[in-house]
Amino acid sequence: MVESYGPDLARRVLSGERRALAQAITLVESGRTDHREMALSLLEQLAPPRREAMRIGLSGAPGVGKSTFVEALGIMLAEEGLRVAVLAVDPSSARSGGSILGDKTRMERLSRHPKAFIRPSPSQTRLGGVARRTYEATALCEAAGFDTVLVETVGVGQSETLVAEMSDLFVLLIAPAAGDELQGIKRGIMEIADLILVNKADGNLKRSAMGTCAEYAQALRHLRPRQQDPEGFPKAMTVSALNGEGLPEVWSQIRALDEWRRRHGHRRRCRAAQARRWFESEIHRGLVERITADRAVRQRMADLGDLVAEGKLFPANAAEELLRRIPAK
Amino acid sequence: MVESYGPDLARRVLSGERRALAQAITLVESGRTDHREMALSLLEQLAPPRREAMRIGLSGAPGVGKSTFVEALGIMLAEEGLRVAVLAVDPSSARSGGSILGDKTRMERLSRHPKAFIRPSPSQTRLGGVARRTYEATALCEAAGFDTVLVETVGVGQSETLVAEMSDLFVLLIAPAAGDELQGIKRGIMEIADLILVNKADGNLKRSAMGTCAEYAQALRHLRPRQQDPEGFPKAMTVSALNGEGLPEVWSQIRALDEWRRRHGHRRRCRAAQARRWFESEIHRGLVERITADRAVRQRMADLGDLVAEGKLFPANAAEELLRRIPAK
């Protein structure tokens, strides 16, 4: 597939061709140096975006019904005529070799919908690298004219924070808690969530979903209001991805929040800050890559890192020693 | 003062001489290149620490009684025979030129105590820089044999996160809420706090302090337990810095938590991870400093950052362009 990258790939992506978008994402995900050059050239041709998609980050532990929710929401939006792209950041892919969306049977209906595009997580070795590529894939979906880009993650380690760094708003999906045994939200998440959705609010679980929702609504009151939020956000709601109950309300809240933030300039400011941070981290990564291209430097950096971790060397001294070994240009 | 740095400064710091410690901190805070070299040499001589201090991060909004609390806790510990150092990270110092502990009349009793050492925040231009120096000052206090190092911040912007990156445990001080108007905790803080202390639990405010405490205790239940916490942590407690009520209980909880974490290896692992992150950020900083020593590169980096923020250039392309301008060695 990689062979077919041509000068018209940018044009084909811009025209919304799904196959071209898939190829473009494969290109940015590739680890080969020549591919990276082509990827950079492609990204350059696609900036600035002619039109912005709404970028929604979504996280939830395994078993909360994340793919059922994404499929239900995706189909609802696609039926409304919106073009929906789904990307995944899978923190476990490095170990398992699998991917969140790798299972072909998942989101079968959505994946066949002409308005939808589903992309499994790349199998990369480092989460930071995966996220960087997904950030780029998000931009490609935007260039391809998608209205909504859903970036999902199971939320291990830093993956939510990284997904939040490429999203306009962040949705956390949780399951109803059993009895009064409270399910703890992972630290740091309540801070980035705009919406907490208690899924499975159907059948036997409906009642406990409502109870769980009320408890989270209460917990959210303890957070200081954010400047970029209208009254009432962040918000906890119940939803049933299974029977669709609550789904239109969820979408209406998402739209209202996004609309408000755009009107007040928060979305623009948020994206500008995100872009600056990606720029900085690209510079850091690029500079470190340069020095560690030298095998001896790479080894020394690893050794110094160990000495620092053991407390035998102070971080500033270790960094100084490493930098001293690298001649300034 | 700077003139007196001699080869025996390390020895004098190690012997616990307070004046030497003050000079050593001035040295690491200095922006001069020759001072930086001396500071690095000093830090090198002081690693690894012969004995670890307990490093406590402390944050609270203006008006919650932070300095009254630090003074009361500090004096209690000093009276028990412990040596206490107090450092400040002041995110506002860059603008105001002032500092958290700059006011000489604050903590007057503690500052006169022979077992105590108080150091105002350095007036630096960038928060990251201030924090780096405070991290180094923490190590200097440790080398000087202090038993406890309290690092305090008013908690604007990223300052709490930075303080947490140099602390073994983190205490958040809040004021009682008026009536049922809930005071929101700044986002991200509940996640790093080990203890939430509702101060001013005295006189008229005692009742509302207890109410506020109960509400936060409830909110903390919503957080997933952390691996590095024993049963019951994070914890909310009331305290009166004014009359000392609750202070021994607070200290006993802090000690219990630290003891538990040390016994289970969490403190060692936490410090190792912190040190690695400081090492990485020192490398990043050093590499960026090198390239931006060239004025044209510095200007280009600023311009590219603006283009990226405006969405006109994609971060990866901007970074690539910047790095292309810098010849590899």
Descriptive keywords:
homodimer, 329 residues, alpha/beta, seven-stranded parallel β-sheet, 14 helices, 7 strands, 51% helix
Please give a structural write-up.
Two copies of one chain form a homodimer. With 329 residues, chain A is an alpha/beta fold. Helices cover 51% and strands 11% of the residues of chain A. In chain A, strands 3-2-4-1-5-6-7 form a seven-stranded parallel beta sheet, with helices on both faces. In chain A, helix 10 links the parallel strand 6 and strand 7. The longest helix of chain A is centred in the C-terminal third of the chain and has 27 residues. The first copy, chain A, is globular. The first copy, chain A, starts with 8 loop residues before the first helix and ends with a helix. About 2% of the residues of chain A have low confidence. At the A-B interface, helix 3, helix 7, helix 10, helix 12 and helix 13 of A face helix 3, helix 7, helix 10, helix 12 and helix 13 of B.
Secondary-structure map with pairings?
The structure is a homodimer of 329-residue chains.
Chain A: H1 9-14, H2 18-29, H3 33-46, E1 54-60, H4 66-79, E2 84-89, H5 93-96, H6 108-112, E3 116-119, H7 127-143, E4 148-153, H8 159-164, E5 169-174, H9 189-192, E6 195-198, H10 206-220, E7 235-238, H11 247-263, H12 266-292, H13 295-309, H14 315-325
Parallel strand pairs in A: 1-4, 1-5, 2-3, 2-4, 5-6, 6-7
Helix pairs in contact in A: 2-3, 2-7, 13-14
